[in-house]
Write a structure and sequence with these properties.
heterodimer, A: alpha/beta, Rossmann fold, Hypothetical Protein Tm841, Chain: A,domain 3, 2 domains, six-stranded mixed β-sheet, B: mainly alpha, 10 helices, about 70% helix, about 0% strand, globular
Chain lengths: ~325, ~210
């Protein structure tokens, strides 16, 4: 394992020190491992709290700031944060208008946030609404599994709900918008290499040089199938087709071509060209696009595609100003 | 009759926790290895981190009632384990604490009621059912066996021993099952043939209980 770390046990704590140093407009609670927007709580603004295992940066800490999240709780690498972190974040960001929890659909994340919401309601009387993202079409049989995983759409939910909260919409409206974004989006990913969790010290899975995992999760979970490595245009097809088969994307669509952490931007742009070409041919109108590393899986090589069906309301909220380390426009 | 009427004291239940801590520490690598086959290779690491924190907490806090003991154990696990095991084991102990209340001793029926409340709590939290290849498979058998034994007139020590046997049967029953909950469920049929790590740690919990009440 070759990593830029001091010790496997201190990776998350040390990274938070760096985040605080690099972004003085944010406030970092090192004891609870929470990244806050510097000016939180804001009176009568719905607070947005997310969080999850570390290793997916810039998600979630990199999306804290004006027009997006108020707080992000960092867990150990690929391990959900704990309820006391989430409860603390919930209390701190509440400006009297309630708090929305944005949770990726993983068993641990869902249960820890559920306990946090119960604790927050009992102990501090904060009203909490919850949206659970589950957009990964690679998980086919949701009835007999923990359900579809929350992946790329989480970035869209945090951006659009963040803009809605910034404009003063109330908790029920922000929560409904967040759920609508989740329901209108789908993702699919591919891994060319494994990732290595620092505490484990060895690759999470074995993937031969000439194979790839189609439908991989953001923690190296298995996908739909392992197949021979193919050209970018063929890979694009294997990602886009299952998405279009799952939901109708005729009409305005926002597209994200996301890097898993280990693929260069050169390849991500190349892949975006292939994806755009396929979408044009399928009659999908690409209204906005985003290319880069937004929800990663440590140093995994590969990418994911996320599509969001967007009406004028969602497009306007997407275009609204945002000022975070990971997304910044209109400011 | 006098011996059979005896219950579980605060001291014995503290020994339960200490023995579970020891067993988890001993089996840390094994639990993690089982988890690497069908999960994310951290069950032993996470449980051991949690039980170390519990031991450290109990060393300084010395709870004076059974309710307080288990509330401390549950809250410590919830705030240190993370993942799915934190809320599940945390809920288990918190519910025992609530059910027991401010007492220093529980009779067999009282402990049975507390274990049932704990099982109900874990079921509500994790939404798994028997047969989903989770800790519920071991936990349900153990709690049923314990309560059945107490109702049938067994001593609390015998009931705990029967619960241990039942937990181990429940644990072993997970091998041929397809996982339907948690991260293992993404593997579908590829999860068949592996023990569920949560069912294995739950069996350790009842091994520890049988030891503490023997």
């Amino acid at each position: 394992m070759k990593k830029l770390i001091n010790s496997p046990d201190d990776v998350v704590a040390d990274a938070l020190v760096g985040i605080a140093a690099a972004h003085p407009q944010l406030r970092v609670d090192h004891e609870h491992r929470i990244v806050y927007r510097g000016d939180t709580p804001r009176q009568n603004k719905v607070g947005l709290v997310s969080g999850g295992g570390s290793g997916h940066e810039p998600l979630h800490g990199g999306f804290v700031g004006a027009g997006m999240l108020d707080a992000a709780c960092a867990g150990e690498v690929f391990t959900s944060p704990t309820p006391d972190q989430m409860q603390e974040a919930t209390k701190v960001v509440d400006g009297g208008a309630g708090v929305l929890h944005i949770i990726k659909n993983y068993t641990g994340d869902v249960m820890n946030f559920e306990m946090a919401a119960e604790m927050a309601a009992e102990e501090s009387g904060v009203t909490v609404e919850t949206v659970v993202t589950n957009d990964d079409v690679a998980v086919q049989d949701s009835l007999y599994t923990a359900g579809r995983r929350g992946v790329g759409i989480t970035v869209f939910v945090e951006k659009i709900a963040g803009a809605a909260a910034e404009q003063g919409m109330d908790l029920a409206t922000v929560a409904a918008l967040a759920r609508r974004v989740n329901e209108s989006g789908r993702s699919m990913g591919v891994a060319l290499t494994s990732c290595t969790v620092p505490a484990a010290g060895k690759p999470t899975f074995e993937l031969p040089e000439d194979e790839m995992e189609i439908g991989v999760g953001i923690h190296g979970e298995p996908g739909r199938h392992r197949v021979p490595l193919a050209s970018a245009s063929e890979i694009a097809q294997q990602l886009v087709e299952p998405i279009l088969a799952d939901l109708d994307f005729t009409g305005d669509t926002i597209v994200m071509l996301n890097g898993m952490g280990g693929s260069p931007l050169l390849e991500l742009y190349l892949m975006y060209g292939e994806v755009k070409n396929l979408l044009d041919r399928a009659g999908v109108t690409v209204a906005r696009s985003l290319v880069g590393n937004y929800i990663t899986s440590l140093e995994m090589a590969g990418c994911s595609v996320t599509l969001l069906r967007a009406d004028d309301e969602l497009l306007t909220l997407w275009d609204a100003p945002v000022n975070t380390p990971g997304l910044r426009w209109g400011v | 009759m006098v011996a059979e009427a005896q219950g579980a004291t605060l001291g014995q239940l503290r020994v339960w926790i200490d023995s579970f801590h020891t067993l988890v520490a001993e089996q840390k690598a094994y639990l993690t290895e089982l988890d690497s086959a069908i999960g994310d290779a951290d069950h032993g690491i996470n449980m051991s981190r949690g039980m170390n924190a519990v031991a450290a907490k109990l060393d300084v806090s010395s709870p004076s009632t059974i309710g307080e003991l288990f509330k401390t154990v549950g809250m410590t696990l919830v705030s240190t384990v993370g993942g799915a095991s934190g809320p599940l084991y945390g809920t288990f102990f918190l519910r025992i604490g609530t059910s027991a209340g401010d007492v220093e001793e529980l009779d067999g029926s009282g402990l049975g009621t507390a274990l049932q409340a704990a099982l109900d709590g874990v079921l509500a939290r994790g939404k798994a059912q028997v047969g989903d290849k989770t800790m519920i498979d071991a936990l349900t058998s153990a709690v049923e066996a314990f309560r059945g034994a107490v109702q049938g007139g067994s001593s609390i020590a015998d009931a705990a021993s029967q619960a241990q046997d039942a937990a181990e049967r429940g644990r072993d029953s997970t091998t041929p099952l397809t996982a339907r909950k948690g991260r293992a469920s993404y593997l579908g049929e590829r999860s068949i043939g592996h023990l569920d790590p949560g069912a294995v740690s739950t069996a350790l919990l009842f091994t520890a209980l049988a030891k503490a009440l023997a």
